[in-house]
Design goal:
The chain is mainly alpha-helical and 187 residues long. The protein has helices at residues 9-37, 43-63, 68-89, 95-118, 123-137, 139-145, 153-172, 174-185. The chain has eight helices and no strands.
Length: 187
């Protein structure tokens, strides 16, 4: 069997630094072009936020041990912040809070449910991430209660799916959870 050659650490660092330098140059050039051509529309800020988002995910992926649930949580938070920023930059119409974030939360909950079903033996490993997503999924309900969100339907659905997902996850992993609690507390 032929395996691909592994890039050694120093070459990987050099490549990362070159790509980072290119990203910074592209961001500066985009900002200059935006200021020269049409300073009233902040399209360079949107493009640069996408570049920053990609680097956050890349650095996290390179420097972290692979944990899919951690990536789901990070993606959920990062994409949510990115959509609010984009919404803000184009005049804040509220679509990020009423549509984008609830859809992101629904997808994150479905991803966590799939992770639980596929690897229910590792449920305890994913439990803390599941709780983070549950807490984050309560945000639409809070925004609806404070009347910040004008269209509450997707937020209600996202919060409901999150609660339902936690219940399903506990049911699917009840036996393993019970065994872990017994081991932990020696009962």
């Amino acid at each position: 069997m032929i395996y691909p050659k592994k890039i050694n650490a120093s070459k990987g660092e050099i490549i990362t630094r070159i790509m980072l330098a290119i990203s910074i140059i592209v961001a500066i050039v985009l900002t200059i072009i935006n200021k020269i051509t049409n300073p009233n529309i902040p399209w360079a800020a949107l493009a640069n936020s996408g570049i920053i988002y990609i680097w956050i995910i890349t650095i996290y992926s390179i420097h972290r041990n692979i944990n899919i649930a951690g990536h789901v949580v990070l993606q959920t938070i990062a994409v949510s912040i990115l959509t609010v920023f984009i919404d803000y930059k184009i005049g804040f119409r509220g679509w990020s809070l009423s549509l984008a974030i609830p859809i992101i939360l629904i997808i994150a909950n479905l991803a966590m449910l799939i992770l639980t079903i596929v690897s229910h033996k590792k449920y305890l490993r994913y439990a803390i991430y599941q709780l983070f997503i549950l807490i984050f999924s309560i945000l639409p309900a809070i925004l609806i209660g404070e009347r910040i969100v004008k269209e509450p339907i997707m937020g209600i659905i996202a919060t409901g799916i999150s609660i339902l997902n936690l219940i399903i996850t506990i049911i699917l992993s009840a036996k393993d959870l019970k065994e872990a609690i017994k081991r932990k507390f020696h009962t």
